[in-house]
Amino acid sequence: MVTPSTRTSGLIDCDIHPVLSDFNELVPYLDESIQQYMNIGKFAKGALAKQNSGSFKFPSSPYANPLPVPLRADAFPPNGDIPGSDPAFLAQDLLDRCNTTYGILNIGHGTMAAFHNVEVAAKYTSAANDWLYDKWVKSDPRYRMTMEVTPLDPAMAVKEIERIGKRPEIVGINLHCVNIPLGKRHYWPIYEIAEAYNLPIVLHPDSEGTGEYAATAGVGPASTYMEWHTSLGLIGQRNVISLVCDGVFEQFPNLKVNFIEYGFSWVAPTMWRMDKNWKALRHEVPWLKMLPSEYIRRNIRFGTQPIEEPARPKDLIEIIQMIGAEHMLLFCSDYPHWDGDEIDRAFLHFPQDLKDKIFYHNPLESFRF
Amino acid sequence: MVNTKEKHRLVVCSAEELQEGNRQLIEVNGVEIGLIRAEGIIYAFRNSCPHQGVPMLYGSVVGTMLPSKPHEYVYAHHNEIIRCPLHGWEFNLKTGKAMFSPDVSIKTYEIKEENGEIVLYLDKEPKQVTRKAFSCILSS
Ligand code: FES
């Protein structure tokens, strides 16, 4: 395991997933209208539980993970509940074991970003933020959190940021990708307050394929979970292109956007193609004053997990050099998900100074610490 | 411990302690070895995944699909596969080999049930032996 002697920096884990044991945990944070809508608390019915007739159904992915235990099977808390449901056990099993300085909590299954009923989604999202803060962040001084907002309704998102976005334990805004490209002016009110509050926008796969407003994955539906999971990078790529071309980083030069879990090896060819196109087509996007790749390097950051594994591991270091990504990568464990990375094994071929940046200095600069 | 020819005999536990669905953990000369019984057969393997090193003993014991033609599923190896608890790599318990490549494997150990005892046969003399407590959601 990693000990302070094998590491020369602190460690900020930018992607840890807490989950609700039960939707009823949200009852104290939801008004009766949403409790009734969701059939929880005193409104729990049950008679039609197996039929789903008229019952609320949480928008989960139709691409079910086919593994027998679709989360880390070594991460069940002692009470047998779901991995990621016990703050004290997670602190011991992950933060103590890895000697983590700060762990950033990005809520797992706490989102309804692409859900068709935006009122319900917004209230659910606020309740999930409050639950995360009370149950998790208050339980251990190493925990930090991103707050979720409703991407389909920027006005409500801004209100939510005004409500809790100044709390020091909140280090970013978890936005989620829906079927409106991220560069669109639709989102600019969110970017404006994010920049003013010095909070980065965080994107993490969650709503892809889960709700009616989900982003499309390229050509059409995937046939398998493997196809779906591998295609997530395409959504990240498409949104990086949109952010740059629509001028978001001219309008908000200090905004940071952190793409977590979409991969990063694709950034090099994306930059090359964008830079080439801009030289010929800059008159179509005359608001771009420098090479598209320069905006990407200045304003966008990428999570390391799931670490890409070329046949020659050193190839990954070369790709990082090609992108100029030494200052752009953020360590993520993704605990307790099945595709997470073990810190002492995933970076074996990385030079020490690069590891220091990825493990500590880059996260420190791209989240609000 | 008796030295039989080249192999070293090590009694791990009673057969009672390794019934169907049970899992046991032992450390021999600093290396953890996991023991399980599935479909009546006992298996012993190194408790560390060759990928990112997580403990294999938390893994699910399952069957899987054989390589087949496009859009054909052929189920086989019922309860002869252990899957890594993290990324799900599949290893054949009988051979230790990964389903995706014979060049990747977990080390397996010779293990026998003899007169109500579970016995490991090891290449190296077991100098330091520690039984370790183990429980997980999948073990009974
Ligand atoms: S650690 Fe076992 S498959 Fe990755």
TrEMBL record, chain A:
Annotated InterPro entries: ACMSD (IPR032465), Amidohydro-rel (IPR006680), Metal_Hydrolase (IPR032466)
Keywords: Hydrolase, Lyase
Pfam family, one: Amidohydro_2
Entry keyword Hydrolase: yes
GO biological process: secondary metabolic process
Domain Amidohydrolase-related as annotated: residue spans: 12-369
Example of a GO MF term: carboxy-lyase activity
CC terms in the record's Gene Ontology section: cytoplasm
Protein name, per record: Amidohydrolase
Automatic annotation (TrEMBL), chain B:
Pfam annotation, one family: Rieske
Keywords: 2Fe-2S, Iron, Iron-sulfur, Metal-binding
Signal peptide: none
Any GO MF annotation of the entry: metal ion binding
Protein name: 2Fe-2S ferredoxin
Organism: Brevibacillus panacihumi W25
Domain Rieske: 10-120
Family annotation (InterPro entries): Rieske_2Fe-2S, Rieske_2Fe-2S_sf
